[in-house]
Automatic annotation (TrEMBL):
Name the UniProt record assigns to this protein: N-acetyl-alpha-D-glucosaminyl L-malate synthase BshA
Lineage per the UniProt record: Bacteria, Bacillati, Bacillota, Bacilli, Bacillales
Pfam families: Glyco_transf_4, Glycos_transf_1
Domain Glycosyltransferase subfamily 4-like N-terminal: 12-177
Gene3D superfamilies recorded: Glycogen Phosphorylase B
Length: 374
């Protein structure tokens, strides 16, 4: 198939899913056309069958803001005709499903089947903004096929937008050949030279990630055993997190790694992954940790319980219950046989339930369904 993909290129789970999906589709022989404002992260190098089309716009003195969304819609229409796209898969209702809706009208009567994947933020955060509510709803209703990354997100979407259309659950996925447990080597010795336990968190440091909770949990763990905390990523809460680590007196044990594009080797360094989010429609990073054989301690928010099996691949507590999370973390870190059991259950679960090949096949069949509707 000739497949168009639009997504946010910035650091974040939806961009990662879109980029990995594009690579996997290209490897299966499809022609994949990214229609984006910038090259998505995780897509830095050349891949056969992948084309990048950047939508650009200029500022005009009379217009207060550059008309980017319209430029993107026009680019979608142009690429659809030029490369004879069979389907356009957009990641996020806003603005992409709405741009796709416009593009569809521009190329009519030529069909342009649109598949929209909801990742979370557009539904759980943006939908609260009444000014955007109807435009997001339009994007959802006008797509030929809609998918969401967890059952929890489907339920939220139905409730918030009062839509009763089909929404298919396609979970985030992982390539177990990329994210896998490795034998501990030099890197681990550098990070934990005295045999400390290594705790890890990776995110875009948005408020919903509850970075202070991570520091609180870690501070409690570090009081009981030698440990270091690796924090990878950057975002709005980064400065405050550094300050809070100082306030808690743990700054020597917390390593702020900043933006890391190649995270697979980081995961395999860790003993435990922390994800105490307030909102999380799936938690791709938790899955990547599990595939690397790393159990997760996190919150019960959103779709996290659909990924992390409480008591098997980690433990989950109510949002904000840092005391309970710290106890869970210590239980895993202080019991080598429990850790080994959870580590292998995590890997097993990631491979069995969230394998890239299985999820890409699910998307392919949904593409065919969208095409058949025209
Ligand atoms: O987590 C973020 O802040 C980034 C966000 C995004 O929109 O890129 O991630 C969302 O999509 C990911 C891929 O489907 C999910 O794994 C994340 O759970 C989801 N984030 C939230 O719901 C907060």
């Amino acid at each position: 198939m000739n497949i168009g993909i639009s997504c946010y290129p910035t650091l974040g789970g939806s961009g990662a899913v879109a980029a990995e999906l594009g690579k996997a589709l290209a490897a299966r022989g499809h022609q994949v056309h990214f229609i984006v404002s910038d090259i998505p992260f995780r897509l830095g190098e050349f891949y056969q069958n992948i084309y990048i089309h950047q939508a650009e716009t200029s500022s005009y003195p009379v217009l207060r803001t550059p008309p980017y969304d319209f430029a993107l819609a026009a680019k979608m229409a142009d690429i659809a005709v030029t490369y004879d796209l069979d389907v356009l898969h957009v990641h996020y209702a806003l603005p992409f499903a709405v741009c796709a809706f416009l593009a569809k009208r521009m190329v009519a009567p030529r069909p342009l089947p649109v598949v929209t994947t909801l990742h979370g933020t557009d539904v759980t955060v943006l939908a609260q903004d009444r000014a955007l509510f109807n435009v997001i709803r339009l994007g959802i209703l006008e797509s030929d096929v809609v998918t969401a990354v967890s059952r929890s997100l489907i339920a939220q979407t139905r409730e918030l937008f009062q839509v009763d259309r089909d929404i298919h659950c396609v979970y985030n996925f992982v390539d177990p050949a990329v994210f896998h447990p490795v034998r501990r080597g030099k890197l681990r010795e550098q990070v934990a030279p005295n045999g400390e336990k290594v705790l890890l968190h990776v995110s875009n440091f948005r408020k919903v990630k509850r970075i202070p909770d991570i520091l609180e949990v870690f501070a409690r763990v570090a009081r009981q055993l030698p440990a270091v905390l690796l924090l990878a990523g950057e975002g709005p809460e980064w400065n405050r997190a550094r300050e809070y680590a100082r306030t808690l007196g743990i700054e020597q044990k917390v390593h702020f790694l900043g933006r890391q594009d190649e995270v697979a080797s980081l995961f395999s360094l860790a003993d435990l992954f922390l994800l105490p989010s307030e909102k999380e429609s799936f938690g791709l990073v938790a899955l990547e940790a599990m595939a690397s054989g790393v159990p997760v301690v996190g919150s019960t928010a959103g779709g996290i319980p659909e990924v992390v099996a409480h008591g098997e691949t980690g433990y989950l507590a109510e949002v904000g219950d840092v005391e309970q999370m710290a106890q869970y973390a210590l239980a895993i870190l202080q019991d080598a046989s429990l850790h080994a059991r959870m580590s292998s259950a995590s890997r097993h679960c990631a491979v069995q339930r969230f394998h890239v090949n299985e999820k890409v096949a699910e998307y392919e069949s949904l593409y065919r369904r969208a095409i058949a509707q025209h």
